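hey can u check if this looks right to u? its 98 residues, i copy pasted from the old doc so theres a chance i mangled smth
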Amino acid sequence: MAPEVNIRGMKFSKHRVGLVLAAFLGVVHLGWLIIVGLNWGQDLLDWVYEAHHLTNPFTVLPLDLSKAGMLLVMVMVAGYVFGWIFVACWNKFNKGKK
């Protein structure tokens, strides 16, 4: 069994956490864009809704590379900003607590 790690009182790098969150969100959305590009998006969305006993009110549009690029840039910037803000708050409110 892995030992417990107490992260209270630890200071994190705003830049590194921002980059990690930006990369994670970028990879998730890139995966979705690949699925849309392969024309599997509608089938996947239909399956997810059906698995939850719902009807799908959405239609997946064909892949538009300019919109896809903009989506990736926007989610990565948002991920960086949210990661940076989260760590700034974490570091401020967890000073010296052990």
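The mean pLDDT is 93.
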